[in-house]
Amino acid sequence: MSTAVQSQDPHPAVEPSYLVSKRGLMSWLVTVDHKRLGLMYLASVMFFFLIAGILAIVLRTELFTPDQDFMSAQTYNQVFTLHGAIMVFLFIIPSVPAALGNFLLPLMLGAKDVAFPRLNLLSFYVYSVAAVFLIVAILTSGLDTGWTFYTPYSTSTGTAVITATAGVFIAGFSSILTGLNFVVTVHKMRAPGMNWNRMPLFVWAIYSTAVIQVLATPVLAITLLLLIVERSLGIGIFDPAMGGDPVLFQHFFWFYSHPAVYIMILPGFGIISEIITVHSRKHIFGYKAIALSSVAIAVISFVVWGHHLFVSGQSELAGVLFSFLTFAVGVPTAIKVFSWVATLYGGSIQYNTACWYGMAFLWTFTVGGLTGLPLSTLAIDVHLHDTYFVVAHFHYVMVGGTVVAFIGGLHHWWPKMTGRMFNETAGKWGCLLVFVGFNVTFMTQFFLGHQGMPRRYYAYLPEYQVMHQVSTIGSYILALGLLWTLIYLLHSLWKGDKAPSNPWGAVTLEWQTQSPPIEHNFHETPHIHGSPYDFPEIDKSAGALHH
Amino acid sequence: MSNDHAHAPAHVDDDEHNPHLAHHFDTMGQQTASAKLGMWLFLATEILMFSGLFLAYFILRMFYPEMVLEAHEHLSKWAGGINTVVLLSSSYTMALGVRSIQLGDAKKLRLMLVLTMLCGCIFMVVKYFEYSAKFEHGMLPGKFYSAHLHGYEIEGLPHIFFGVYFLMTGLHGVHVVIGLAIMLWMFIRAGRGEFSAKNYVAIENTGLYWHLVDLVWIFLFPLLYLVK
User: Fold this and answer.
1) Per the database record, which ranges form the Heme-copper oxidase subunit III family profile domain (chain B) (predicted)?
2) Could you give the residue ranges of the DSSP H alpha helices within chain B?
3) Which of A277, A322, B71, B162, CA to CA, is 20 to 30 A from A483?
4) Measured between alpha carbons, how far is A431 from A429 in angstroms, rounded to an integer?
């Protein structure tokens, strides 16, 4: 592939790209290049996305009829636990920050690398060890606690809780190291002239995410350590039979895991900010509002964990306060959505695949965000808690938000990362399948949940059958769309056209170097004089595409 | 690497050939500031991790105040007190070590690292005798608690207290051991002449870490040993 790239290049690069600057397997295994590590993360998270996605399809297939089909209750418990644990800890949390973030952050800042390249490599291997632990847990006695590991069940079940929590514990350190690296990179590695008001919004989002990763993940670490000790030594801190408090575990767990929701979605916001402005060729509306709303979300995210405990027996006063604070998250989030819509207004929108995903996000994420409001309303939550309404809500945020943004971002930066253009028509078909499949799958579940279908059951009452079947068919369409996307993206690596350095006419720095970039990113350290969204005249930038 | 000349702004020519400057930084100042910020962030994660345990401790005390009061009488105030003095002294020698290398005195730095490591080892030895005594008396965490079989009657649920005690002091002890390993590494590096008045951020970061280990103990000692 590499020789073909160079021979077809109309403007031969002075230096080979990062993909071919060093050769051999070892040059990848011990690389400290943030771009190569980004690709390695990308391959890893995609692998786990596939595994956990297959588990989801298996679950949906079991739910096609009300009775037990091919899975026992115990197997069903294990499969939904693994689906959740793998998706959360091995896919979504590292997806955008560790894969796209690693690749893009130094490029967008005009730096040669992240602040601590060796720590970055270590972080990847820590992640790999965590994955091994989780795989060992699956292959030994499995895991059936749900991804939340609630006590006292998690301290009494016979499955491999210690191995699995040890894996999540280790994955947490990978997350901390990546976050720490990114915070320092943003503070110390910006190119001359790149002040805080000139940073791309993706950087602001990754920065806010990294702050949460650094501040929240240590609490998860100690929570899981306490759980491991509780299970192995029975110290009695969480187990009511030994004098402990199981609700304390929920407080500990959600103190991390609610901010973790924003670790998952904030980078998605960053991607959408880039996609919307670049593909509508218009300066982003409300740059500072979007940038600071990321920070605001990061701050508020630490004080809303109690909304997971509305029916766990916390005090009424705490419930009211957490309910209010949860509503408060809606404000900075709505600021973002309105700003994106305002950016589109009057822009000269290019309807290509990345933009389609941006539009899809505006719909799916908004539905996900708005359905959070009934859940944060105390009285209504009592009815909806632990039903499919909750399942639908967080899938609209996690899949409709993060995954849609992630795939959109993958299309947006694919030419930069791989040096190849994918087929736009194929991309749009993929996006359409994903969008339709996703909405059919999960929109139905809002109604199921509202009618009382509880989550985490392998069998259900016959009156829910029609909607469950619609949802299952939707999940097949979604899976088809994702597989189709995987196929044409991989196909583009061999058959795709050579990507120009700036196919979308963007202004941020990663597009000012060749595609794919050289090992040290830029031939000369860039100097920044203005906003990352000051697009030249629309005619000029459109014309530049054909050069 | 060949294009490094093109990357570095003209005014940092002094740093161009500094062997301690990593390729992706432009100046030593940038590299040092990054290392320090990274260390402070790491310390923040440490504090948050320990804060989870402190929270568990406070919940325990809120639930079972009488039991905590009675159980803590079985911890040795003398051992804890000696260890407090030892760790505080080690923070002092560590600070002197950092000061020495800031003034370019690598020999004195090595001496101070040895003294700090000595204090750390004394701490661990005292801890060893403390733990041994607890093991002998059956004052073990959780389901291994058997002090009543050794003639110690503590009202309530003392197995939780000793669980939290071992978890907090144990995690702290692990940090002491890691600190000792880092100082040994720094001692070896200092022997190779890697540190100077211009390049001492690794020593400074080691010092910051060690002060945090000290600081955590400053809270652990009164909360566990001196409850009233």
Assistant:
1) 36-228
2) 4-7, 28-63, 65-72, 77-102, 106-136, 158-191, 201-225
3) A277
4) 5
- How far is A251 from A317, CA to CA, in rounded Å? 15
Are the CB atoms for A68 and A136 separated by under 8 Å? no
Amino acid residing at A417:
M
Q: What is the pLDDT of residue B11?
A: 44
H or E element, residue A486: helix A465-495
Q: Per residue in A380-403, pLDDT tens?
A: 999 999 999 999 999 999 999 999
pLDDT given for residue A9 in this prediction:
44
Query: Which of B39, B48, B57, B172 would best serve as a mutation to test chain A binding (most A beta carbons within 10 A)?
Result: B48
Q: What structural domains does chain B harbor? A: 46-225 (1.20.120.80)
Separation between Cα atoms, residue A179 and residue A318, nearest integer Å = 30
Domain ranges of chain A: 28-535
Distances from the Cα of A133 to the Cαs of A84, A142, A176, A323, A521, in angstroms? 16, 11, 18, 37, 35
Cis before A152 (ω within 30): yes
Q: Please classify residue B174 by burial: count the beta carbons closer than 10 Å to its beta carbon, then call 0-12 exposed, 13-18 middle and 19+ buried.
A: exposed
- Which of B4, B12, B27, B49 would best serve as a mutation to test chain A binding (most A beta carbons within 10 A)? B49
Task: Give me the interface pTM, i.e. the ipTM.
Answer: 0.90
Q: How many CB atoms lie within 10 A of CB A390?
A: 21
- Write down the mean pLDDT value for chain B: 91
Homologous superfamily in CATH for domain A28-535: Cytochrome c oxidase-like, subunit I domain (1.20.210.10)
Tell me the whole-structure pTM to 2 decimals: 0.92
Q: Is A180 on the interface with B (CB under 8 A)?
A: yes
Q: Which residues pair with B162 in a beta bridge?
A: none
What are the residue ranges in chain A where pLDDT is below 70?
A: 1-14, 537-547
